[in-house]
Design a protein that fits this description.
Blueprint lengths: L9 H11 L17 E5 L2 E4 H18 L2 H31 L6 H15 L4 H10 L4 H20 L9 H10 L9 E9 L8 H16 L4 H8 L10 E6 L5 H9 L9 E3 L2 E11 L6 H31 L2 E3 L1
Antiparallel strand pairs: 1-2, 1-7, 3-4, 3-6, 5-6
Length: 329
């Protein structure tokens, strides 16, 4: 007699399904595959090359837009190997599910299909079915794939110990080793005027005189952003010299030294660097701060619990692999 999986409540499965299966109209737009064959056998179940390519297709399209030549070929091979590993793991999980004689109620899959039609097809079931047909899917095949995805997520959740307690020592050790994760960077809100000292139509002295004139206008009460729009010669001219919020290592070192040591609201003297003349103003400043252990404790505990869950899942999958007959081609 077959058993219903007691730990997998209908509500939990519905949430798992929604989290795991972000299916939308674009998800059906897979590239047509002509050549096929056996990529792997897992305890008698066959995984085909077309299944591997279907899973890796989105990543491959991205790679083709970024890389060429041997680098592209190597990356595509790597992506397909990862896709094959993922398909093998999924098949092992589904086999484990069947071995335990578990079942997923049909209404869970029906609800998932209903949600897809509502969210991605405006509630139009006919359009959904026609989209499936255009991609050579039957509704039954689609439901089967959704069922398998739900099974994989449910089994992963089922095999993770939920009462894992993180010791205070582990939390403190993580905090001490990764304090930078809880430290906000020092940053300033900067405006800058740049006067080029290397124009073909003027000598350096004339440009320096122009920079001094600009500084005089600012000292006389001119608005920094308006003066920048008139005189600055860098890419932020149209924005009134606004660089926005910046952190260390954004500016050249000599400019950074001035900028991060200036009081808020102060206008710098003329800074000569690399043949050009710069005038800076810091509009605001955020001093870098580090959260205390007490403030960071909750986030650290959550991360360590998630890390432990992933390790438990991987050990479980590894045990399934160890007991299985797996052959790749």
């Amino acid at each position: 007699m077959r058993n219903v999986v007691r730990p997998f409540t209908a509500g939990t499965l519905a949430v798992c399904a929604l989290a795991l299966l972000p299916i939308c109209c674009g998800a059906f737009a897979q590239e047509a595959q002509v050549v096929d064959g056996i990529a792997a056998i897992v305890n008698g179940d066959v995984i085909t090359y077309s299944q591997v390519r279907q899973l890796s297709a989105p990543r491959e399209r991205l790679l083709h837009s970024q890389l060429t030549g041997q680098e592209l070929e190597n990356k595509v091979k790597e992506v397909r190997q990862l896709a094959l590993k993922d398909l093998i793991d999924r098949r092992l999980i589904i086999q484990a599910f069947k071995k335990e004689s578990y079942e997923i109620p049909d209404h869970i899959v029906d609800q998932r299909v209903h949600d897809i039609i509502r969210e991605s097809f405006g509630g139009d079931r006919n359009t959904f079915v026609k989209t499936l047909e255009a991609q050579n899917y039957s509704l039954g095949e689609f439901k089967q794939k959704e069922m398998e995805r739900i099974i994989v997520e449910a089994m992963r959740s089922h095999n993770v110990r939920r009462n894992y307690i993180v010791s205070p020592t582990k939390i403190e050790d993580f905090y001490n080793k990764h304090r930078d994760l809880f430290t906000t960077k020092e940053e300033i809100k900067l405006r800058m005027i740049m006067i080029s000292g290397q124009k073909d139509t003027a000598n350096a002295q004339a440009q320096k005189s122009l920079a001094e004139e600009v500084l005089g206008k600012l000292a006389a009460g001119g608005e920094f952003d308006q003066v920048a729009r008139l005189y600055s010669e860098d890419s932020t001219k149209e924005n009134g010299g606004d660089w926005g919020w910046i952190q260390h290592n954004t500016l050249a070192a000599p400019l950074e030294k001035f900028a991060f040591n200036m009081p808020v609201g102060r206008i710098s003297n003329i800074i000569e660097y690399s043949g050009n003349y710069y005038i800076l103003m810091v509009e605001d400043k955020h001093v870098g701060t580090t959260k205390s252990l007490a403030e960071a404790r909750g986030a650290i505990e959550k991360k360590l619990i998630e890390d432990e869950a992933l390790q438990i899942q991987e050990r479980w999958i590894a045990s399934l692999r160890q007991k299985a007959f797996i052959r790749t081609f």
